[in-house]
Amino acid sequence: IFREHIASVLCVTCTSNNTLLMSGSEDSRIIITSLTNGVVVNKIDHHRGPVTQLLFTSIGDVFVSSKLLLS
Asked: Nearest CA to 16 among 3, 35, 30, 31?
């Protein structure tokens, strides 16, 4: 399922109805995959830095991503 990432996966979450899985990694990519058929639904390559946190809203129509800032 994580073949689309080229670096270590740092976080994973899924929708409340368990139909979509979203993963974020050190390669700054967010990959959204259908848990029904295993097909990649979307790839997002525009995150600034490693993706360390992901969250779907309760109905799964919006998601939030972030990176951990170290000082």
From this structure: 35
